[in-house]
Write a structure and sequence with these properties.
386 residues, Cardiolipin_synth_ClsB, 2 domains, two-stranded parallel sheet, EC 2.7.8.-, 17 strands, lipid biosynthesis, phospholipid biosynthesis, phospholipid metabolism, 41% helix, Endonuclease, Chain A
Length: 386
Amino acid sequence: MRHVTFVDNNDVTLLESGTAYFPALVAALDAARYDVLFETYIFAEDPTGVEVRDALVRAARRGVKVRVLVDWIGTEHRPAQRLGTVLMEAGVQYRVFNPWCRRGIARSHRKIVVVDRELAFVGGININDDWQCDHADKHRLPAPRWDFTVQVRGPLVTEIHDEAQGQWLRAGRLKLRQRIELFKEMRKEPAQSCEFPAKAAFVVRDNLRNRGTIQRAYLQALGRAKDSVLLATPYFAPGRKFRKALAHAARRGVRVTLLIGVGEFVIQDMVAHSFYPKLLADGIKVVEYRKTQLHAKVAVVDDDWATVGSSNCDGLSLFLNQEANVVVLDERFAATMREHIERGIADGVPVRPEDYAGIGWIRRASYGLAYMVYKLVMRIFAIGYA
């Protein structure tokens, strides 16, 4: 397992939801001069998807080398085929990650864009309409989906580029000569330092060298926490080690607050509910976000540690899927991230111990059963979940 390695002199800007991200993304694609590496889990066939797709097409047609990788399950088979047809006609190099689950059930859940090795975007935002639910009947949400991405300039962009380049290699079959050319591209000079010298790290989770790297980053931060932990996640179902780290922090006086999304998947909500009594007994504050679909995977620890990325705090993200986060050690960035999470908490509904005091045995048993089934499935498919 790799250690979390921080790089100095990066400019890291927080972008909230698609209203901030998509204009910045399209502008970056339209300004691209040399190459674009583009990864996403969902690439929807809606006006947002068309806008981004057309920006990729424009870049390719003016001679920019554009490589796009989408996930087969996230984007879905037919839409992925139609997207590929349009992109490849314009000269975009296009691949679908793990079609028909030929390489197992792991998914590429990452959302990464690198432009000219100078600018990168990493976060949780898919290429889809903020107002449209991204599953089931795709109904209109009561408010825009709540999510985040970071825009990065500086030396860290080189690491992000190299990882995205490696993912492109792993996702397809290339001849030896093509692989050599790609590795030559990875050896170009790194980006220069920027105006705001934030220290940051790029952490990924895969099933090779980085199986536990994202969880390790969280555990290290929780172990050092002295004052507060704010964590927002759509789905809460981490393994025992993660839950113990949260409990230990709360017991030594750290103010721990979990903001958890609810209302998407009944079984997922039941699994999360199975943890509530223990979390509350340990002194952890639990808040359910009900304003709209919570898709953010973000956290702040004390005054200088923050993370933004694609990794949920559940078994799929921490032990099975391929994920990517940016961790930032910077007081300015952490303060901004804290303000956003605190606004989310204000929009949520606190869970009180008395809310569970009167729950009947049938509901309690159903929560416990949901967790047991979830744990069994994770142990079968995800190495390390306990």
